[in-house]
Amino acid sequence: MVEQRTLTPLVLVRVQVSQPLQKPLIFNGFFSLKFAFRPVLLYKRLVDTLKTENEMAFFKKKNKDLPALTKDNLMMYKRVWLTYVAPKWKLLALSIVLMLVASSFDALLVSQLKPVFDEVFLDKNRALLGRIGLIILGLYFLKGAFSYSQALVMTKLSIGVIRGMQFDVFKKLLAMDNKFYQKHTLGEILTRFGSDVATVQGAVLGSLTTFVRDSASVFFLVLLMFWQSFEMACVVFFVFPATIWPIVIFGKKMRQKFRKNREVDEKFFDQVTQTFKSIKIVKSYCTEDLEFENAKKTIYTQNKLQFSMAILNALQHPMTEFVGGVGMAATLAYGGYKITAGEMTAGNFMVFLLAIVAAYKPMKNLGTLHMTLQQGVVSMQRLFSMLDIVPDIRDKPDAEPLKITAGRIEMKNVSFSYDGEHPVIKNVTVTCEPNRTVAFVGHSGSGKSTMINFIPRFYDPDAGEVVIDGQNVRDVTLESLRKQTAYVSQDVILFKDTIKNNIRYGMPEATDEQIVAAAKAAAAHDFIMGTPDGYDTVLGEQGSGLSGGQRQMISIARAMLKNAPILLLDEATAALDSKSESVVQNSLERLMRNRTTIVIAHRLSTIINADRIYVFNEGEIVEQGTHAELVASDGVYAQMYRIQYRKSDAETANG
Ligand SMILES: Nc1ncnc2c1ncn2[C@@H]1O[C@H](COP(=O)(O)OP(=O)(O)OP(=O)(O)O)[C@@H](O)[C@H]1O
Ligand SMILES: [Mg+2]
């Protein structure tokens, strides 16, 4: 984006100025009739450029609904400036100086034409021709050199600005809590990180470049015009805009039509996708005719619009030609009159015209500056709305590290809802005595995982509190809390990295021996040794390449290695076969012995030995006690147990 912006003026001026300049130098050593038409051709070119612009706008799909530049939106620019650009003021200042110098060359180059016309062409002064040629070459060279350095400096600045924003976004993203990730898709987040940041930078520095470079260019060129002919300059500034106006209006019309056309296109596309995505249904309900009728209608609407656009398009050319003709005639008449009256030289006239041509593009850039600024606003709003989120789950200013003395966890009268409407946990109280194992059982969706999430503060309950050894988890630092809880989540999370690094994630200091020991305890060692590179095997995205059970073993090994005083196991062994499960169960039991553990399990055989079992049902605890007590009381648990018992009996009998 940066390179393009900063490199265009060079190319552009070459196209607009160098051609009329070089052609006469190379092909016409003398004043010929052709030159009488030069101004006409130039003006025509200007009009043609405008026309192409309109046509381009016609095909471009952008600037649909840009936000207005309200005070608030402009304040965001101020914020970007102060936070990300101002600290790099040295680069900024250098870039501005280079831009100012580079843009003065346009006017300098154009002004060289006067002696070419008046003295070389009219007075046939050949000696001067060579000198001016050299001057022009020199000017181009300098202009190129300045533009080049400016582009480099600007690129450096832009990269710095982007980097600053990316650092902030990344830090913020890491600090966000689960609620944020629940609301925003990965795609959205990546957009913030990539394109939004780039758009903001582009809008901020792009508008700066346009503003400084183009207004300086215009300023110098206008100065040149007034210097050549004050009177004609005055006329041009009032008459010219009037002739161009119809073309501008025309362009607007075209864009409107185009927008409508695009909407219809999108509708058609949606329709077609719908139809063919559900082709099975279409066929089974025999609605092919109906679908065709619908498509036909849209295609007709499309055709109508296409035709009305074609009319506008066809009109555009003759109309711009005509407007061009009017301008041409007027300019020629006025200039010709002035020249014949001896009030102006041919050189003055040419320089004047070229200055207009050269000023056109920068003026247009300035005219669309607001659009650049508006484009930035959307991204800025998105970016800042994210940077300004204060995650609910964060350290209190006076948070102290969690000190685990015994390992007693109390969750008192906890209530929670994910969406603020449907309660998922309803006034639940759970107590885990130090170094004991507590089990949560219950049907799917009854709130077990949610409950466990409150301990490492992945979510905070809406009401009630979670207390570990007398310290409310909200009052301790998140880092100390999470370092002291090992959590094996229901859905295993693995990184695209080696098995070894996956096991020691977050514990870079763990030795290879410790890693292998943890893997052995998690019954993972054997299968790891069977992978191509053993512990150095690189896993695919989300652990692809491993079976569900193998992934679970790795995540258990990770928790074992962490060796934290609080252990949370959410269906940790659910995907394991019974042999691996009994291996893991043994090591887990050893692991649980001297720490407080909460286990969630559907397979009740794994929690029979738990010190206390809580039975969840629709966000409430309906029963609690030891396995024996619960079986004896013959409630929900006993029923669940009987069903599983019978099933496993049957399995054993069958197997
Ligand atoms: N991230 C979430 N956003 C919204 N609702 C959720 C979210 N996670 C869970 N829920 C809802 O909260 C309720 C409890 O879910 P939870 O995951 O705690 O159940 P569970 O007891 O662990 O079930 P399972 O045994 O299937 O793991 C369910 O109704 C579920 O739909
Ligand atoms: Mg769960």
Walkthrough of the structure:
This protein has helices at 2-27, 34-59, 71-85, 89-111, 113-122, 126-175, 178-183, 186-228, 230-277, 279-284, 288-340, 346-367, 369-387, 448-453, 478-483, 499-503, 512-521, 525-530, 548-562, 578-593, 627-633, 636-654, and strands at 409-417, 423-432, 437-442, 463-468, 471-472, 485-488, 566-570, 596-600, 612-617, 620-625. With 655 residues, it is α/β, with parallel strands linked by helices. The protein folds into 3 domains: 29-53 and 64-387, ABC transporter transmembrane region fold (Up-down Bundle), CATH 1.20.1560; 407-484 and 566-575 and 592-655, Rossmann fold; 491-563, Rossmann fold (3-Layer(aba) Sandwich), CATH 3.40.50. The strands form 2 sheets. Strands 6-7-8-3-9-10 form a 6-stranded mixed β-sheet. The two termini are 67 Å apart. Bound molecules: adenosine-5'-triphosphate (ATP) and magnesium ion. Magnesium ion binds at residues 448-449, 490, 570.
Strand order of the largest sheet: 6-7-8-3-9-10
What number is the mean pLDDT? 83
From the 3D structure, determine the CATH topology of the largest domain. Answer: ABC transporter transmembrane region fold
Termini, distance in Å?
67 Å
In the residues, how many domains can be counted? 3
Which oligomerization state do the chains in this entry correspond to? single chain
Structure class? alpha/beta
Bound molecules: adenosine-5'-triphosphate, magnesium ion
What is the 3D form?
elongated
Percent of residues in beta strands: 5-15%
Indicate the CATH architecture of the largest domain. Up-down Bundle
Largest sheet: 6 strands, mixed
Helix content: 55-70%
Gyration radius from CA atoms, angstroms: 38 Å
